[in-house]
Amino acid sequence: MQAPAFVAVVGHNGAGKSTFFKVLTRTLPYQGEVLLNDQSLHHLSNPAATGLLSYLPQKNMVAFPVKVRDLVVMGLFRHKRFFEQYSAQDYETVQQLLNNLEIPHLLDREFTELSGGEQQMVWLAQLMLQDAAICLLDEPTQQLDIYHKKRVFNLLTDWTVQKNKLILCITHDLVNLHGHVGYILNLSKPEPQLEVLSAETIRENMLYLEEKPPVI
Predict the structure, then answer these.
(1) What is the pTM for the complete model shown?
(2) What is the C-alpha separation between 160 and 184, in angstroms, rounded?
(3) Residue 109's closest CA among 63, 68, 64?
(4) Which CA distances in Å does 29 have to 9, 35, 51, 111, 207?
(5) Is the dihedral of CA 8, 120, 143, 153 positive or negative?
(6) For residues 22 and 106, what is the distance between their CA atoms, to the nearest angstrom?
(7) I need a labelling partner for 51 at 20 to 30 A (CA). Which of 4, 76, 135, 210 fits?
(8) Half-sphere exposure of 194 toward its Cβ, with a 13 Å CA cutoff?
């Protein structure tokens, strides 16, 4: 893996973007060879459980009442021993993270009472707290307003450098990618041309961390 890097995964509907992520998370059978950190994915039964990879799907559901602070702190569960309680310092870390995301007012709210955009920001906070080397995000800005779309992309691209992350982000939000440092992984087929040309236009305006795209 070459990191840090922000990779925008783009393409028309049905191009295989989410399928690609399902392969990386070992939730879909595949043929061929995929390497994560120079290890064959066939030899990694659960990359997420090892802390190598974290994944924020397009839709996440919570069917029980839970405070935002308690949902976000669960991002630390891989760093805990069995039955180990979350500490005051853990909750302080959650507070600082929500401050950075500009959503500290959600800390004591019930998650199920939040808007779709607010819930998405909370899931992003939990993902960041997991602190995995490789982060997969499927349409993280889909339900956000214009301000928070830009805010999320700024946070993700900054995060790659500050925390030495490899971030792969499925998105159709090509406009807000303009000016960011990273790569375009375009999975579109030759048709429709509009989608491909839009991605190429953004590619020309993006700065690159390296001459070659990152190796996962």
Answers:
(1) 0.80
(2) 15
(3) 68
(4) 20, 15, 21, 33, 35
(5) negative
(6) 31
(7) 210
(8) 2
Each of the 216 residues of the chain gets a pLDDT tens digit; together they read: 456 889 999 888 888 898 888 888 888 888 888 877 777 777 776 666 566 889 998 878 887 889 999 999 999 987 777 778 989 999 999 999 999 889 999 999 999 999 988 999 999 999 999 988 899 999 999 888 888 888 889 889 888 888 889 999 999 888 888 778 788 888 876 554 444 444 454 444 444 433 344 445
Contact 6/157 with Cβ under 8 angstroms? Answer: yes
166 burial (CB, 10 Å; 0-12 / 13-18 / 19+) is buried
C-alpha span between 10 and 198 (Å, rounded): 10
- Structural element, H or E, at residue 71: helix 68-73
Q: How far apart are CA 209 and CA 164, in angstroms?
A: 12
C-alpha separations of 156 from 187, 196, 207 in Å: 21, 23, 15
User: Residue 143 is encoded by which pair of tokens?
Assistant: 């339900």
Top CATH class of 5-205 equals alpha beta
Region for residue 158 given its phi and psi (left: phi exceeds 0; alpha: psi -120 to 50; beta: otherwise) = alpha
The Cα 88–Cα 95 span in angstroms is 11
Residue 151's alpha-carbon distances to 102, 154, 163, in angstroms, are 9, 5, 17
